[in-house]
Amino acid sequence: EEEIVSQPKIDVVQIEAGKPFIFTAEVALKPEVTLGDYKGVEIDKIDATVTDEDIEADIKSALEAQARQVSVERAAKDGDLVVLDFEGFVDGVAFEGGKGENYNLTLGSGSFIPGFEDQLVGKNVDEECEVNVTFPEDYQAEELAGKAAVFKCVIHEIKEKQIPELDEDFVDDAGFDSVDAYKADVKAKLEEKKTSEAKSAKEEAAIMAVVEKATMDIPEAMVETQVNRMINDFAQQLSMQGLSLEQYFMFTGMTAEMMAEQTKPRAEKRIQSRLVLEAVVKAEGIEASAEDVEAEVARIATALEISVSDLFAKILFT
Known about the structure:
By secondary structure, the protein is of the alpha+beta class.
């Protein structure tokens, strides 16, 4: 039985009153995979050593994760998080996608058009200001390309990041008796993490070595479907930050075509990995036991930091 691996492309053949509705649906079918010599592939050894620099970087990250965003009554400066409203105009006319309300923007993050964030430095809460930028000549929206734009902005709140010190109070809150005990725990967890990452990297390298020896003809429609799925996942992540994909394109100068092109290699790699793994499983007659399935489901749920029931709900309803 053939497996469909793409969204259908519909072509209407007949749509007339009193006559049958006739259409065709073109889909991509799962390709056959011819495995090469996949047994005994060799891969380079991956270093999982934990260095002092690794420990310091992890502690710095932990301290920053506990940082508080504290509202301040002063002008905004680089590194601050500002909550602002903005609306963009070209030749005095507001343009689509150029408006945002209560948007959280970290100054200096480079997430908006070059020059936008710099012009908010020095502004105060409730101070109405205008930010002047020029869209690139090759900007994705032709009607904005090369145009000078004015963004009317007002900052509602300015927040300063306050990072805690690595002291007895910090480690006590984390459940440790001393700074040394905390550092020892960090090292142990990093060793476990890097060992796990090295194992995953070796597994991925082994899979790609099998991919290189295998032969498969992946339909373009299958790649397009995977690309669209990955872009939709990215769009959902953006929406959780209060930003639409269209606004992301506007502020970064990225286009849908550019994003699809950048995503395509990862999509192809993901498809290749899945296909060769399925082929090896079939060739070796491997079957997963109920215990194996339960263990893998629990592992994925733990990695996503959700319950098993929530994981199933996510799979069923998305």
